[in-house]
Amino acid sequence: MSGHDDLNFGFTPGDVLLVSGAGSGIGRAVALRAAQLGLAVSAWDLDERTVGETVRAISDSGGTAIAVTADVSDNAAVERGFAATTRNLGPIRYLVNNAGPSSAVEMPFDDGLLAGVGSVRRMTETWLAGEVPDGAAVVNVASVAGNFLGTESPWYCATKAAISGYTRYLATYRTGQVRSNAVAPGMVDTPRLAGFAASEVGKRSLQRNPLQRMATGDDIAYATLFLLSPLASYINGVVLPVDGGWLVAQ
Ligand SMILES: NC(=O)c1ccc[n+]([C@@H]2O[C@H](COP(=O)([O-])OP(=O)(O)OC[C@H]3O[C@@H](n4cnc5c(N)ncnc54)[C@H](O)[C@@H]3O)[C@@H](O)[C@H]2O)c1
């Protein structure tokens, strides 16, 4: 467990947080930690089984969560997911756009942009078109890739930079509705990067990281939850690296 069970971050218990990609890795960590902070969680994923496990873990420890099986790149599924969330939990105050394809997936550049940043926009605009409570906030999961580093693959690098650009647009023009920020994780120990730390390139990367380890899902989840929380009410439009100091040590 986290060792931070007394944290609250100023959240109002029962407020609703929606997180996509909640069946694994960073998204699952956000869901579990948000529930520990007293938020009601709408956990979304493509994978019905894994998101069901996330929700069961929350329910077993006394929290509130629902599972939504939805592909964030599918308009109709997104509309249905928002309707189901509001019907079951009430208006959504917090959104975490975390789901996105792995950089290892080979796909045409344009498809990658649609799947990556197109989905972040779709989720956000669908949410903002409905009833959004005061104090609403969104955090989009970008990456050090594209924002601070050039990496493979081309669509991944471009889409992560575009997510930050879209976040800055929201932070400038949509403040009547929402406060908007992004996190830029470095290397995170999730199923997606399984085996990376032991690989040659992984070892070389970790040697250049001042903290000499990958991030945990919780490292990214707590940064995300802080940016969403009322404690961060004057933080708007940042892209926060959560990378152990990897960037500054390059
Ligand atoms: N792991 C890292 O080192 C790292 C670094 C920087 C950024 N990120 C970003 O963090 C986010 C989460 O990565 P992770 O490492 O936790 O990945 P992960 O593979 O462990 O989990 C991703 C989850 O998202 C779901 N998902 C994927 N596409 C979806 C879609 N279209 N609709 C709904 N659900 C979908 C998957 O089923 C999976 O459960 C991604 O946006 C990724 O680009 C990860």
TrEMBL record:
Cross-referenced InterPro entries, in alphabetical order? Answer: NAD(P)-bd_dom_sf, SDR_fam
Q: Does the keyword Oxidoreductase apply?
A: yes
Question: What protein name does the entry list?
Answer: Beta-ketoacyl-ACP reductase
UniProt GO molecular function: oxidoreductase activity, acting on the CH-OH group of donors, NAD or NADP as acceptor; quinone binding
Question: Which GO BP terms sit in this record?
Answer: fatty acid biosynthetic process
Family designation:
Belongs to the short-chain dehydrogenases/reductases (SDR) family.
CDD domains membership: SDR_c (cd05233)
| Gene3D superfamilies to which the protein is assigned, alphabetical | NAD(P)-binding Rossmann-like Domain
UniProt keyword list: Oxidoreductase
Pfam families per UniProt: adh_short_C2
Taxonomically, the superkingdom here is Bacteria
Claim: Aminoacyl-tRNA synthetase is one of the keywords in the record? no
